[in-house]
Amino acid sequence: MTEARQAAAAPMRIFVRGLIGLLIALPLMALLLIAGAWAREAWLGARPIPSEAQAATPASIERGAYLARVANCAGCHSVKGGAPMAGGLPLGTPFGTLFSSNLTPDPETGLGRWSADEFWRAMHHGRSRDGRLLYPAFPYTSYTEMSREDADAIFAWLRQLPPVRQTAPAHQLGWPYRWQTALAVWRLMYFTPGGVPSQDQPGASVTTGGAEADGLALARRGRYLVRAVGHCAECHAPRNRLGALEDAAGLRGGWVGVQGWIAPSLADPHAAGVQDWTEDEIRQWLQSGWSPRAAALGPMADVVAESLQHLSDGDARAMAAYLRGLPREEAQKAAFKPAPPGQLGLGRLVYAKYCADCHGDQGQGRRIGGQPAYPPLAGNRAVTLEAPQNVLQMLAGGGYAPATKAHPRPFGMPPLRQVLSEAEMAAVASMIRQSWGNQASPVTEQDVLRLK
Amino acid sequence: MPGLLIAAALGLGLSAASPARAQAGEAPPTVSASASAMASSAEGGPRPLRPLTDDIAERIQACTLCHGPQGRATPQGYFPRLAGKPAGYLFNQLQSFRDGRRHHALMAGLLRNMSDDYLREIAGYFAALDVPYPAPAPSGLSAEQQARAERLVLQGDPSRRVPACTACHGPSMAGRQPAIPGLLGLPRDYLVGQLGAWRNGMRRAHAPDCMAGVAKALSTDDVALVASWLAARPAGAHPEPASAERLPLACGGLSP
Fold first, then answer.
1. Rg, chain A, Cα only
2. Residue A293: exposure state from Cβ atoms within 10 A (0-12, 13-18, ≥19)
3. A431, CA 20 to 30 Å: which among A91, B44, B146, B202?
4. Alpha helices in A225-340 (DSSP H)
């Protein structure tokens, strides 16, 4: 009997000892992690800056203005109708709302007291002038690969803007996200500063090595523009639960902040991959927001209007060459699941009434003056993306392709949520996703209700 | 009484995005409701598609879902008529929606990436449309309310520094070129919504924002009366030509 009782007590003892061990070990491990994270920050902060700041010249200011366009600094640091680059735009994230900072040279509220070295440290290491760790909503995770010369040029341009006294509201973040130590641990796990102190206009100067070398140089410049300056991965790559990019270079598609749009995969030719486009079609699309193959809509229309339409021809070609050469990765297609016949029937009624006049009775799209004015829906990648958000956003809010220098008078689509119920929107979305050879998953009323 | 309703409309008019569907007099009946009509047309084979033309009329088709064909929305519902308004006024409004001086999520979404040139072309198109006005809605005001509204509109209230509407918007209240809008032929709910938005700063015009001052000097009851009275007036006159005459208030955004 006693032996049996002892035998029964043994696992209990092991459990209690284990528990005590864990109670001691876990805080110890957490302390070690925190100490390690801060030690690394101290080490990173103490590393010498590997190159000298470039003095501002009219040429560097002009180049900085161009680079600021390509990096679309204004997309976050300017509020519509407000003073340029004065910050204050709320940026929704799953962790809370951040407010962009004032980049004008105001000494109190902007960058007035910053040096070029301090600006470089922010871009490359993600640390503010006072040493504070910056939130990666500021995409230093991409800018860390920007060359010192380019960062200096942007700084030179910012310095000569009119100063604006405007304090950004405080970030609204819950614990632990507002805790700098959490950010240090996050950076330990997910952020490594780039190793490219100087990569001035990579590729731009190599023009005499024959066609193959030129092609390589072009793609290298494109890689730099896509990965560092353009920071495309910040939307076009997936993020993990802690908001860190998963294989940024893969550009396998992600979410656009909390705007409710998908940034489709650039690796997959069935999503937004351009492996099968000509370099010229891609260049045209980037600079005008439009090509015979597709139009830029939603948040990408903003990017074209604010940034990409200003690309030089050479840089647009470089980006096109790099994007075209991305490794092709086609996502596994789920087994086709037809929508209920009743829903498709309702969808056909909605389509005939509201859609057919522009998109054609067979989803073939319609042309004006020989050019596509209203895109075909048959075989349209934006329609058949696995996730239905983008097509629902278009149905609900409508929209115009961006008005650009090369495509100044775009055609548009009305916001159908003014006249369609959620059930009708889901029905017509299912119908266009499953007609004329399209084979995408059906859409439910819940999908529409979940729309932001 | 109307007062309560108006208080609600004041709130609604500001966001206007979702109540719009319920209120849109122009909005076609829901598809399910008109299913039988669709089916019969389907029996007769596919109907011919709308002919497309390479012009601005085709490019503004997206606007007509709410503002009606040729921008001639009726006084029923919420959406304002655009046809025949002064071009400068329409351009200022398009720009304000794009740049955040006026707030309407759908308008902002549609206009966000348009250039000033394109907005000017769109404004010019609607301004040049000369299409008839439909009959106005009955005002539903009592004789006493009618008299109060009429006094405010035609004489203003000097004690509150509120000028007569007609002092700026013209004796026929059809507006004045290039940038003062007409006040007739608009839905009552829209007028209430706009004056309400000006009262609480949700609608702004170029500085100095004279209408903000006027709207803030009015009570919600005044807003309700004036809106009901205006919406019940027959419309049809054209905007007055531009003139160098001084306005009783300093207003921004009036020069082209």
1. 26
2. middle
3. B44
4. 233-236, 279-288, 299-306, 313-324
CA–CA distance, A377 with B175 (Å, rounded to integer): 44
How far is residue A70's CA from residue A143's CA, in Å, rounded to a whole number? 12
Q: What are phi and psi of A234, to 5 degrees?
A: -60, -25
Instruction: Parse chain A into domains and list their residue ranges.
Output: 58-190, 210-324, 341-449
Give pLDDT tens digits for B10-19.
433 333 333 3
Q: Which residue has the tokens 């109190």?
A: A108
pLDDT tens by residue, B201-222: 999 999 999 999 999 999 999 9
CA-to-CA distance for A383 and A276, rounded, in angstroms?
A: 18
Cα B98 to Cα A79: distance, rounded to the nearest angstrom: 11
> Is domain A341-449 classified as CATH 1.10.10.10?
no
> Strands, DSSP E only, in chain B?
none
Out of B21, B62, B117, the one facing A398 most closely (by C-beta) is: B62
**To the nearest whole angstrom, how far is the Cα of B179 from the nearest Cα of chain A?**
20
Strands A262-263 and A371-374: unpaired
CB contact under 8 A, A366 and B109: no
> Which of A360, A418, A419 is nearest residue B49 as measured by Cβ atoms?
A360
| pTM for the whole structure | 0.87
Distance CA(B181)–CA(B173), nearest Å, equals: 8
Closest chain B CA to residue A306: B113
**Is A418 close to B65, i.e. CB distance below 8 A?**
yes
Q: Provide the shortest C-alpha distance from residue A355 to chain B (in Å).
A: 10
What's the mean pLDDT in A36-60? Answer: 89
